[in-house]
Specification:
Helices cover 75% and strands 2% of the residues. Strand 2 and strand 3 form a beta hairpin. It is mainly α. The chain has a 3-stranded antiparallel β-sheet. The longest helix has 19 residues. Helix 34 runs antiparallel to helix 35. It is built from 35 helices and 3 strands.
């Protein structure tokens, strides 16, 4: 040791002996090891050097001179060295006794640093023993256990860095759970919280995967940890494992029951099994109301989760009802200026915007912002999120410039508060890119979207929702620029990540399939387009049921592509599916029904079945006349189609009548130079020549 090191080491040692973190200087004068250092007034003496460098500080109390470490963290570090030396050859019991008997501020942190030194030399035995002791000792193990997971030098390196980390985590988990107790579960939960807070997402994912291999659901605590791990295992195994966990019965604390049921609901939500998610969130809410009461923040959080499930199910009115209930409880039990009230206004506003009530949504989000500004001020991440959400509403109101202003306000705060490399900073860059895209500023859009992607990759890695959204957004810009090859590349990457995260039967995967189907159709790859549309229909039917407008639209689009490929019977089958959904949702006099009846008429016409074709055209015309009247281009199209049938039947009089009706509509509505108008003029001339 250097003289400086000897001085600091001995000071820490004396502080442990006297159980004081500040010592009288005259106590040190007679110390054999450092007395001469302290007495010396030479500027190059160790004691004077440490004072000059600010490592130590002298202070006067009641006319007596005292010395202490200036920086608390450095004091803890030196304490750790002292404890590590004294603990050589001793087991964890020694550290436990030290923690319990020595009444010195910083002793626990010193023990923590001692354990870190153990880990640095590849010895985890005392750490594992302390975890088994449980109690207050669990508060000391979070950082050492984190270092144990991060320090993979104690095993032989494998082929890749990732393999080395996985092997090392397996080793640590197997050691930890070799004689498993509730303390091991508590320790893992604490370290996962710590890693999540510090955005060590990849390590979290590996630990959760290994937990699923080593932990058995012997009680609610272990079952809860296993449930949390479900989102990290193979997508094809998740629902099966969840179903097994839901069949377990534990006669334990109701509070633990709530957490378990709520976590089950969250996992079903992530799997897009919204029916089961809604059931379990409802059960969790019932438990929370009994255990915590209506006004408890835990219950209010559950209202928010429950509302979001109904939002995902497309049941926006139900979601709004739940968010209104949450807001009602907040206003009843807290005043308006409360963070939970702000959250309720925020959730209600976002739900209202889904049903097109943008003015009401704006009102709710402005209330949320107003509360947030009072509670947290302008320079706070919550304020930045409020500005971001307001930007989304203005974007949906097509006021892109105002949306950009709000996104910029959000970004300015985030860069100051959380920095460039943060989830919300990346998300705000992405929103700015989307807004600039809407006003045709594609270079700016690309710049912001690329920043969003880079941040998301750094913070979360590739397998994250933000990453596939960034790839999707970049694909959309490429579509606008008509660079379809690049667009397909970005959208395919987005789909690949979505499938890895959510599986093939999820609403988020559906969005990519739809976009790729449209793109493949655009570039003329109809066979792949058909495959993607079929996938999209399967997903939408699985997650939302067959009778919904989205499924109907997908059947219609698939029918159109098959029609263009001259696969008329398959086209008819899809048009009929779309029509049945339309009738069930909207009745038989909706304009959508007219469009589908007209498409069916065209498909039967192309199959040379004139009678069926005529029947569908007549039904389409009846609806169109009721809805649009006699001067609408869609009515003109049907008149034209009926005219074609009469022409083919050599009924010149009726053919002329319907062609003239169509021509007049196109002339009035579209003008003489429109292609429809010119085509009908040519048809009238040709038929007159017959």
């Amino acid at each position: 040791m250097t003289d400086n090191h000897v001085l600091l080491y001995r000071l820490a040692e004396l502080m442990i002996e006297h159980e004081q973190h500040i010592l009288p200087v005259d106590l040190l004068f007679d110390d054999e090891q450092i007395g001469d250092f302290v007495k010396s007034i030479q500027i190059d003496s160790p004691y004077q050097q440490m004072l000059l460098e600010g490592v130590l500080t002298e202070s006067v109390r009641e006319e007596k001179l005292y010395v202490s470490f200036t920086v608390e963290g450095y004091f803890h570090f030196v304490l750790g060295e002292v404890i590590f030396t004294k603990a050589k050859g001793k087991n964890a019991e020694y550290l436990k006794e030290l923690s319990e008997k020595i009444q010195l501020n910083g002793i626990r942190e010193g023990i923590e640093n001692c354990l870190n030194k153990d880990i640095s030399i590849g010895d985890s035995s005392r750490l594992i023993e302390l975890i088994d002791h449980g109690g207050e000792m669990l508060n000391l193990i979070v950082k050492p256990l984190t270092n144990l997971f991060l320090n993979n030098k104690i095993i032989q390196k494998t082929k890749t860095k990732e393999e080395a980390i996985i092997d090392h985590v397996s080793f640590v988990i197997s050691e930890l759970f070799s004689n498993s107790t509730d303390n091991d579960i508590k320790a893992i939960n604490e370290i996962l919280k710590y890693l999540d807070k510090n955005e060590k997402n990849e390590l979290c994912a590996i630990i959760y995967k290994k937990v699923n291999e080593f932990v058995e659901p012997v009680n609610l605590k272990s079952a809860l940890l296993l449930t949390k791990s479900i989102g990290y295992i193979d997508i094809n195994e998740r629902e099966l494992k969840l179903d097994k966990l839901t069949n377990l019965n534990f006669a334990e604390l109701v509070e633990d029951n709530y957490r378990f049921v709520n976590e089950i609901a969250i996992q079903f939500y992530h799997l897009a099994n919204y029916d089961k998610a809604a059931d379990y969130f409802e059960k969790a809410l019932e438990i929370s109301l009994k255990v915590h009461g209506e006004s408890n923040p835990i219950t209010l959080d559950n209202y928010h989760y429950y509302g979001q499930v109904w939002q995902e199910k497309g049941e926006y009115l139900k979601a709004i009802e739940i968010f209104n209930k949450s807001l009602e409880v907040c206003l009843k039990n807290y005043d308006e200026l409360h963070s939970t009230t702000a959250t309720s206004h925020n959730n209600l506003g976002l739900a209202l915007h889904f049903i097109g009530e943008t003015d009401q949504a704006l009102d709710e989000l402005e209330k949320s912002l107003e509360i947030t500004l009072v509670l947290f001020g302008r320079s706070h991440s919550k304020t930045a999120i409020s500005y971001n959400n307001l930007g989304l509403i203005w974007k949906n109101k097509y006021d892109y410039r105002r949306a950009i202003d709000f996104f910029n306000m959000s970004l300015d705060i985030l860069l100051k508060v959380v920095g460039e490399i943060h989830t919300w900073t990346g998300r705000t860059y992405g929103n700015l890119g989307s807004a600039w895209r809407e006003i045709g500023e594609h270079k700016k859009a690309l710049d912001f979207m690329e920043k969003a992607l880079n941040i998301t990759l750094q913070v979360h890695g590739e397998l994250h929702r933000g990453t596939y959204i960034s790839y999707y957004n970049l694909g959309e810009v490429m579509v606008d620029l008509e660079d379809y090859e690049k667009a397909l590349e970005f959208h395919s990457k987005s789909l690949e990540i979505r499938i890895k995260i959510h599986g093939d039967l999820h609403t988020n995967t559906l969005n990519s399939y739809k976009k790729l189907a449209m793109l493949c159709n655009e570039v003329g790859d109809d066979d792949i387009s058909i495959l993607y549309y079929e996938k999209a229909i399967n997903i939408n039917t699985h997650t939302r049921g067959k009778v919904n407008s989205e499924t109907g639209n997908l059947y219609e689009k698939l029918g159109e592509i098959l029609h263009d490929k001259r696969e008329y019977k398959k086209a008819i089958e899809n048009y009929e599916n779309a029509l049945l959904i339309c009738f069930e949702l909207n009745g038989d006099t909706h304009i959508k029904a007219a469009t589908l009846l007209n498409n069916l008429g065209s498909a039967w016409y192309d199959l040379k079945n004139i009678e069926k074709s005529f029947d569908f055209y007549e039904k389409a015309l009846t609806i169109d006349l009721k809805v649009n009247g006699d001067n609408h281009p869609s009515t003109g199209i049907i008149y034209n189609n009926i005219g074609n049938i009469y022409r083919d039947k050599k009924d010149i009089t009726n053919a002329q009548y319907f062609y003239k009706k169509a021509h007049q509509i196109f002339l009035n509505a579209l003008g003489k130079d429109h292609e429809h108008t010119k085509l009908l003029l040519k048809k009238l001339k040709d038929i007159n020549d017959i």
